[in-house]
TrEMBL record:
Signal peptide: none annotated. GO terms for cellular component: membrane. It is a multi-pass membrane protein. It is found in: Membrane. It comes from Populus trichocarpa (Western balsam poplar). It comes from the Eukaryota. InterPro entries: NCS2 (IPR006043). Belongs to the nucleobase:cation symporter-2 (NCS2) (TC 2.A.40) family. Keywords: Membrane, Transmembrane, Transmembrane helix. The chain crosses the membrane at residues 39-58, 94-110, 131-152, 158-176, 183-204, 219-240, 361-383, 389-408, 420-437, 459-478. This is Nucleobase-ascorbate transporter 2.
Amino acid sequence: MAADPKPEEISHPPMDQLQGLEYCIDSNPSWGEAIGLGFQHYILALGTAVMIPSFLVPLMGGNHGDKVRVVQTLLFVEGINTLLQTLFGTRLPTVIGGSYAFMVPIISIIHDPSLMRIPDDHLRFLSTMRAVQGALIVSSSIQIILGYSQLWAICSRFFSPLGMVPVIALVGFGLFDRGFPVAGQCVEIGFPMLILFVICSQYLKNFQTKQVPILERFALLLSITVIWAYAHLLTASGAYKHRPEITQKNCRTDQAYLISSAPWIKIPYPLQWGAPTFDAGHCFGMMAAVFVSLIESTGAYKAASRLASATPPPAHVLSRGIGWQGIGILLDGLFGTMTGSTVSVENIGLLGSTRVGSRRVIQISAGFMIFFSILGKFGALFASIPFPIFAAVYCVLFGLVASVGLSFLQFTNMNSMRNLFITGVAFFLGLSVPEYFREYTTKAYHGPAHTRAGWFNDYLNTIFFSSPTVALIVAVFLDNTLDYKESARDRGMPWWVKFRTFKGDSRNEEFYTLPFNLDRFFPPS
């Protein structure tokens, strides 16, 4: 008769750092490999950098030339913000990109009656851009104050591994409408892209050239090159000639009008659209988006630390990162990027897919962003990749980030009824409430919050449109009010507490110390 299995053979011991990564946060691949991986992160960041202006600029009355300038500016500031964050912020390998959280207040500004009345389209575009810039400049103060005053570090003391699970998981799962619904808009290129990316990154990951798993490392570049060429072939052969306009827009490789509109060389500069204008109502609405960006980034930083094989960032490091992110939103407002900044979730997923969590790779990708945003024609060539190709990759990468959130459950007791209740309710409401707000807005052309105070409507609609924000409100409230004193161990606090302070764990110094000996001036708490 076979002996009963031992407990250690059934369960897996919890791990502070994720195992199985080839390069962690401060170990670097060879320069050639690092440049290739950096370029891959740049290509991935293009998806959001092009999608947001492509949607917003036409609503503002802008033309193709305006759209190209906004894309270039967004990429340029993205590169600067990524360098600042990886050098002086959390120091995690995170790309700081454009954020969808700012859509609600920006669309509200676009539909402001005083701006809608401007008859000339180009003048309306410039006036709207300046109004958005003013709102971003003022509202960036929220993250700057919360970050540098260490107030966010104090708030983060109420977070436990249990409370963070729904927040981090919904940073990925909450973006489900950016995945297959967009890939399915041109299923003949979206679906092959999804299949090819999974095959290269997972099934062929052991294929090596000079001891480098080339297909796993560069699955994204290889898949995009093959499917982009295939999409170009379909376009050139006239496959979409008599198809509906929406199909042509999603599938054709010549519908973005970026290359023809882009200048050869153009350096974005502050106040290039003119002096920003300030309106109290616009600023209040935008503050909600800045708050949402702060919560989404908090979850994203925790996911990035895991996929970079680092320890969770201590409270003051997290707060420092939020402060620098506020500076990033201030730069967005000064340059006129059309949206605010947050951590790019897809680029965090790519850390896991390539198994390379190196900080240097992300800094190289920031260099590519700045370089190609100045050389307009070359940048526009890559930026004309059809959106369904990016969306197919998001299906994998957003899912990967979400599963990192679920991995924090290993530090909690999931045999506790209390924990099951909190996790389930926070997850469900985190998905259900934003879906209600989305559906209501689609039918009624305004959010459920619809009073005479426009700024109040924007504030509520923005907060409840965000899955991680709803999850954080629900999970943190329940976690800190339901039997919290007796359940510290169930919540995972004994494991979490040593990472709260910089000196709590010896590895924190290795991962999060500032460069150029700057910790002398900003001593860690």
